[in-house]
Every structure is written in C-alpha cells, then in structure tokens.
Specification:
The structure is a single chain. The chain is of the alpha/beta class. The chain has 18 helices and 22 strands. The protein has helices at 40-44, 68-78, 95-104, 123-129, 138-150, 181-205, 301-309, 326-335, 348-354, 363-389, 396-406, 410-422, 444-538, 543-547, 563-573, 591-599, 613-621, 645-682; strands at residues 3-7, 13-20, 29-37, 58-67, 82-85, 110-113, 155-170, 210-217, 220-228, 240-242, 245-261, 268-274, 279-285, 290-296, 313-318, 338-340, 552-558, 580-583, 604-607, 626-628, 634-637, 640-644. The strands form three sheets. Strands 1, 2, 3, 4, 5, 6, 7, 8, 9, 10 and 11 form an eleven-stranded mixed beta sheet that branches. A six-stranded mixed beta sheet has the order 20-19-18-17-22-21, sandwiched between helices. Strands 14-13-12-15-16 form a five-stranded mixed beta sheet. β5 (82-85), α3 (95-104) and β6 form a beta-alpha-beta unit. α11 crosses α12.
Length: 683
C-alpha cells in the first residue's frame, strides 16, 4: 500500500479496476485506489512542495489490491461519496447483479462510470482530455477513475428514481394472541396507525412531498405506504422493527439502468431579482422549473452573480416593480440579458398566489420568485411559437434565448444556428440541394421569394394551430374554474374541520390540566387527612394506645393571646386542664386574658413573641409554666399540632428552674426593701 496527496472531495472516493480474474468467474481481485480527505491537522503538516496546485480539500491516495468481498466490506465501512470505474459491469456480472449492488450501497454513495453513459469512451481519452495521468496497468486506471470522479467527470449509474417508498406495516401476524383475539388485533392495528402518524409528522417536518395510501382495518391500519419525492438519505425515517410495527424504506426502481451526468449543463434561465438590504434571487427554467432561490444580507453583487451563473445562463432578468431598480439593471447588463418589469408594481396577494406551490424562506425570496414566474407567464406564448418553429435537431432553449435577449427573428436565429452547425445553410425549406437537377437555377431574389412564401405558409398554419389551441384552452379554463370552485368549497370545509379540531384540542388540554391539578390537590388533601386522623387520635381516650412508645403529646394552637381567640379555640376543639397550649402571637394580653387562660390550668404554654409584664405576672402567680415555642419541636397541621413529650418535659423543667430563681430574686428584693424601710424608720 502506497500513498501521496491530491485534491479531492470532502468524503472518500474509491477508484476500482479489475486486477485479476473476472467478475463472472471465481474470486476476482480489484485494484483499489482511495482518495481520503485529510483532517485540518494532517493538511497543515503536508509540505508545500507536496501540495497540489488546485483548490479543494487535500486527499491522501492509498492503493491496495482487494477481493470482491473485502471491497464490499470497505464500501459499507467507509461509505465513500463515489465509487469510480471505467465500466460498471466490472463490478457486476449482469443487470440483475448490478441492481443488487446499487441497492446495497450506503445512502449517499454513488457508483460513477467516468467514461460516459451507454456508449463509453476509452479511459485513456477521457483522462487525457482532463489532464489526468494515465497508464495501462489496473492500479493506474483505478487512480485515473478516482481522480476523474472527484473532478465531477462521468455519469452516475442508477437503477432507482428519486422517489422512495416508506411502508409501515404489522410487525407480527394477527393469527394468535395472548388474550382476546379481537383485542389483540385491535392493538396491533392501533399501533400501526400510531406509527403511521408519527412517520407522516416527520415527513411533514422535513418539508418533503409525499403521497399516502392506507389500508384500514379493525382498530386502525393494516399498513400504510408513503411515496416520498426524495432519496433515502434525505428522509428522517429508516428501516426499523419494534413490537407490533415494522417500517421498510426502499427506493423506487427504474425500468432499466440509467446514466445521469454528475454535472448538468447550464441551461438558459429566467432570473428574478429583489434588491435591498437583503438581496434575493430566484432561478426558473424556460420550461417553468424552479431551480433555486437564494437570499443574503452580506454578499455583494459579484457573489450573487456568481451564484446565478452556477445555476444557468440568464436569458431574462425580471423585477417585481416598475420602473426597474438600478441594482436589477446592473444584473441585467452583467448577463447581457433581456429585462422584464410588470405594467405596475405586483400586489402582494398576487405574488402570494403565484408562488403558493413553492417554498421560500422569506418575503424577499418570494418577491424574486414571483418576478421570475410572472416574466415566464408573460413570455409563455412567445416561447411556444418559437418552439414550434424550431427544427428538432436545434437547441430550442438556445433559439429562445437569442430571440428574447437579442431581439432577432426566429428565422434569422435558426439560419445562424444551421450555418454554425453544418456550414451549408441548408434547412428544412432548402430545395436547392434536394430538387430536380434539370430545374434551372434561380436568382437570389427568386430564392428569397420562395423562402418568404414558405414562411407565410408556415405562419398561416401556425395561426390555425393557435386558434385551435385557444379553443381548447377556453374549454380547459371552464373545467379548471369548476374544479377551483369545488376545491375552494372543499378547502372551506377542511378549514372548518381544522378549526373544530384545534378548538377540541385546546379544550382537551385545558381539561387535562384541570384534571392534573385536581389530582395534585386530592393527593395533598389525602395526605393531610391521614395526618389529621393521627392527630385526632392523639387527643382522645385512646391516646395512650396511639402514642404508646412514640413520645408524642397533643398541642392546642391559639392564634392570638386574646379572650376571643382563646374562647374560639376552646369552642372548636376544647382546652382542658393538662393540655399544652401554643400561642402563635403572645403579645398584647392583659391580666384578665391571662387569668382566663390560667383558669383552664394548661400543663404548659408555648409562646411566639413576648408576653406583657401583666400577663407574665398572672401566669407566674398561678404557677402556669411558660416557654418559648422554639424550645419545643412542633409539627403543625392547621389548628392542631404535636410535640415530643421529652421536649415538653424539658421545657417545664426549664421553667421550674427559672421560677425558683425568680422567687429567690423576689425574696431577696423583699428583704432588701424591708431593711431599707427599717433603716429609714430609725433615722
């Protein structure tokens, strides 16, 4: 295996030629040349003297001799952009095997015959024409084929169209099931229908054109077939099989083997330009085919001109406003093309209607495309007349382009093209070469008169044909108007159905949200109910059974230290002697409120905030323990709460300790007061 560097594509290119043996025999060996693009680091490491003097990615040339099996394995592993050969039947014994090979190629891999289509040229001649080194040994031929394919020389060999069939079907038979037969069948068909909708949604998201056929069965679909206008690599769906459903993706077969050039010739086109901060261009063929649309905010005029030239040779440059803007006129002069503008600025609704069948990314592209299409419509009759006059062997589009852009007559252009083609000026009306040799020579005037008479006859016949076409078109217009009326009526029906579906979907979403919120509330209430049940048990006769071994005690909560709040709590769930009372706000109470609470003889009063001196004195005199709520770990549920028995006892012990200190302090202050009074009396 040897290697060196050349310029190539962004993906590998394989060049293949038979080294020994025969594809129709046993174990053929192939000379394989691979053009592998280098990474950025590898490309920077290539010395300047080894760099090719053409633009493009640098590729390494690797050579090897491989068996057919290894070649196919390398194709699957490397997924080259192109497999180049001088004859496609060196890889397949017959047409059937060639179709099999083409079907097995990875998506995006093309088989290229670099020597031409059905009548290939010698590889040596093609290589010489494009300046590719060539030698007669298989390895050199494989390298020449690879380099030619990398330079876009040759024809793609294909047995398939650009349409792909996507089939969604049952993944298992409905002949048996693990439960009820009907339920089993309904489940399978329902899953097929669900997967069909998913596939259709993916195709629609990818903006792919498709047609759908479904076979409806009990509970859903038995199968669905999508005919998609795209190649498999452009479709966001692949072969798969999961449970009840299988998906098969297969390209549509052609009737035979086709050869499509890698690079299409540049046809004559109509270009629509929409200038401004964002410049847009649209390229439309003379046959009405929309080739491409483009818009840019950064590219200058030269870049847009280059973009247009890559897609065709402009015969007409069109604008959607009148008069023609200077920028559009600059493009027209650059292409030396005819100009077209409407009689007045095109209305937006007409542009939307004319471009409704084509995808555009923004309003600028839409306006450019509308200008090109309206220019095509305006010249359609002229194109038809020119096409009818053009002999079959001449390029119809070339004649149209010269007549439109050069303002020459059709006959003059045809005569010029004939002269360019055979140098004799002979045509379908040239009688001098094919007439009777005994007929006397005519003068130039007589020949001109004869040509004019023939032209008049052709024009008169053309007028008759046009009249007949007008009648046919009038009939066709009536039919289309009837179809349009039906289509509008059907569209209105479908629009109402879509609005109804959207309304029902919104209603369904709203109800589902309300359902979810109700479930969350129900779960919260259920949890709260369980906790309330436990708290209720704590405060009743069976408290000992409930709290046994759990170190818990019920706490009665009072919102404020007021008479009304105490009476409300007592009325609601009762405050008995020995209860633990929790004052959420202990401030503001007077002696009477404190006395009311003391009459209930609570075991402990837990407080939030600061007691007034009067209330504190009353509770202390009545030996009611008072402690901050922070000293006890409370667990609250609305007006009920529980605390640990150990925390309550600790708070009571702490209050008793503080009460003893307070009594000692009061006694000490009393003794000091008595002594002070005694001393005052003696003095």
């Amino acid at each position: 295996m040897t290697s060196r560097t050349v310029r190539a594509l962004d993906r590998p290119v394989f060049g293949v030629d038979v080294q020994s043996g025969d594809v129709r025999g046993d174990a053929p060996a192939y000379a394989l040349v691979t053009l592998t693009p280098l990474s950025a680091d590898e490309e920077d490491a290539v010395p300047d003297e080894n760099r090719p003097d053409v633009d493009g990615p640098i590729a390494r040339i690797d050579r090897d001799v491989v068996s057919r099996r290894k070649l196919l394995r390398l194709i699957d592993d490397r997924e080259p952009a192109r497999i180049a050969t001088d004859n496609a039947y060196e890889l397949a014994a017959d047409k059937g095997e060639l179709v099999q090979l083409l079907r097995s190629l990875p998506d995006g891999t093309r088989l290229v015959q670099v020597t031409g289509a059905e009548r290939p040229e010698p590889l040596s001649r093609v290589a010489s024409r494009h300046g590719i080194p060539y030698d007669s040994d298989p390895m050199s031929e494989a390298e020449a084929a690879a380099r030619l394919a990398a330079a876009n020389v040759g024809h793609e060999v294909t047995a398939f169209t650009d349409e792909t069939t996507v089939k969604v079907a049952r993944g298992r038979s409905t002949g048996k099931g693990g439960w009820s037969q009907d339920r089993y069948t309904r489940r399978i068909h329902g899953n097929v229908k669900k997967r069909t909708r998913q596939v259709e949604s993916e195709l629609r998201s990818a903006n792919l054109e498709y047609e759908r056929e479904v076979t409806e069965k009990y509970g859903g679909y038995a199968n669905a077939v999508f005919t998609v206008a795209a190649r498999p690599e452009d479709i966001p769906v692949s072969n798969s099989r999961a449970g009840d459903v299988r998906v098969e993706v297969e390209r549509e077969r052609r009737d035979g083997i086709a050869y499509e050039p890698l690079v299409q010739r540049r046809d004559h086109v109509i270009v629509g330009i929409d200038p401004g901060t964002t410049t847009a261009a649209a390229v439309v063929g003379l046959d009405g085919t929309v080739h491409d649309v483009h818009s840019t905010r950064t590219a200058d005029t030269a870049d847009v001109i280059e973009w247009v030239i890559e897609r065709g040779r402009p015969a007409i440059v069109a604008a959607d406003v009148e008069p023609m803007p200077d920028t559009v006129e600059t493009f027209r002069r650059s292409f030396d093309a005819a100009g077209w503008i409407p009689d007045s600025d095109l209305p937006v609704d007409e542009k939307l209607h004319r471009t409704r069948e084509f995808e555009t990314d923004n309003d600028h592209e839409r306006d450019a495309l509308a200008a090109a299409l309206y220019a095509l419509d305006d010249h359609a009759d002229q194109f038809d007349r020119i096409a009818e006059k053009t002999p079959p062997r001449l390029d119809r589009e070339a004649v149209i382009a010269r007549v439109v852009s050069g303002e020459e007559s059709v006959e003059t252009v045809i005569d010029d093209l004939r002269d360019d083609g055979d140098g004799s000026g002979a045509g379908e009306a040239d009688d001098e070469g094919d007439g009777d040799p005994t007929e006397p020579d005519r003068t130039e005037e007589e020949r001109e008169i004869r040509r004019l008479r023939d032209r008049v006859e052709r024009l008169e016949g053309h007028v008759d044909d046009l009249t007949a076409k007008l009648d046919d078109r009038d009939d066709r217009i009536e039919e289309l108007e009837a179809e349009l009326t039906d289509a509008k009526r059907q569209e209105r029906i479908e629009a109402r159905e879509r609005r109804a579906v959207s309304r029902l979907e919104r209603e369904t979403d709203r109800l589902e949200r309300e359902r979810d919120e109700a479930r969350e509330r129900a779960d919260g209430l259920a949890e709260k109910l369980e906790r309330l049940k436990a708290l209720w048990k704590l405060d009743h006769s069976d408290f000992a059974d409930v709290a046994a071994g759990r170190d818990l005690v019920a706490v009665k909560a009072v919102d404020q230290f007021t008479r009304n709040a105490i009476e409300a709590a007592d009325s609601q769930y009762g405050i008995a002697a020995g209860d633990v009372v929790y004052l959420r706000d202990a401030s503001g109470a007077g002696r009477q409120t404190a006395a009311l609470l003391a009459e209930m003889d609570p075991r402990l009063v837990l407080k939030e905030g600061t007691l007034s001196e009067a209330a504190d004195a009353v509770l202390f005199e009545e030996s009611i323990p008072v402690a901050p709520a922070d000293d006890v770990a409370l667990q609250e549920v609305d007006d009920l709460a529980v605390a640990r028995e150990s925390d309550v006892e600790a708070a009571i012990d702490d209050w008793e300790r503080r009460a003893r200190e307070r009594e000692r302090q009061q006694q000490s202050e009393l003794v000091d007061q008595i002594i002070s009074e005694h001393r005052a009396e003696r003095s």
